[in-house]
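Task 17 of the worksheet. Students: predict the tertiary structure of the chain below and write it out as structure tokens. Keep your answer in the requested format; marks are given for formatting as well as content.
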Amino acid sequence: MTTVAKNPPPGTPLTPNFTFRDYSIFFLAGAICATATHGAATPIDVVKTRVQIDPALAKHSLLQGGRKIVAAEGPRGLLAGFGPTAVGYFIQGGGKFAGYEYWKKKFVDLSGSQEKAVQYRLPIYLGAAAVGEFFADILLTPLEATRIRLVSDRTYATGLVTGFARLAREGGIRDMYAGFLPILCKQIPYALGQFTVHEYCNEIAYRNMSEETKRNLSHLQRSGISLGSGVVAGVAAAVLSQPADTLLSQINKGHGPEGSMAHRLVTLAKQAGFRGLFSGLGPRIYMTAFLVSGQFAIYGQVKHALHAPPGIEIFKE
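Model answer:
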């Protein structure tokens, strides 16, 4: 990891300068890790989404719901929405990871000193995750709306291109971004849990090692620490984002009253109740633990393979 300079000369940034090539690698690594994990999790996500929005499956477990979908639609039913998932998360993953690296560096430099950066590392993590995710979600939202329509209605379109074209033609920008607010409500808490908890788990792991042990860690060992931290971060991300994930599925299905998005979200939340908002949380915890841990593992491997600089470390000693 790249550490923050303790006593830099006046006018010198606290952190090393990342080049355009560096950020390109961050984007590519984030795109690959997000696409690989979300693509692999498509069958789980299909069942989770159907459990959330289909009354006939609402009381079924992940396994039971999957069996019913396969019985009714065949194995291909579990791959509904794969195209939008792969493309959407390629763009979103790249933007999120590269954005986090960029804004984390900016906020560390703005802190003015290593001591301040360490003292305010929590707001730095939260701010970098939130801003990076916000811009990534602008790109993700139309593709996520397409995915949910393909999953919830098997007759909606034959795939990504036809589904996206139908959504744009029939609903325009309004329907394409109808889910933007709930996506933000889902993805920003998800990113906060993902990055912040991962950073703190890494900090705890490294703080309990001697300097000699840390210096002698192999790349594989560091990857193992990142993977383990990712599992914990995935659980946190699932819990924080579950209510908005449920509401997002309802909005994109067309449920809820007319009116502003905020009014629709509040009404749907009241109708669902606490239990309904957390429907499907169990399967989603397993899914996000896999997603987040896998993403950090793949992200680190791709960066290492392409000789990208390490991320910035502001751990408390």
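Marker's comment: The chain has a mean pLDDT of 86. The longest strand covers residues 2-3.
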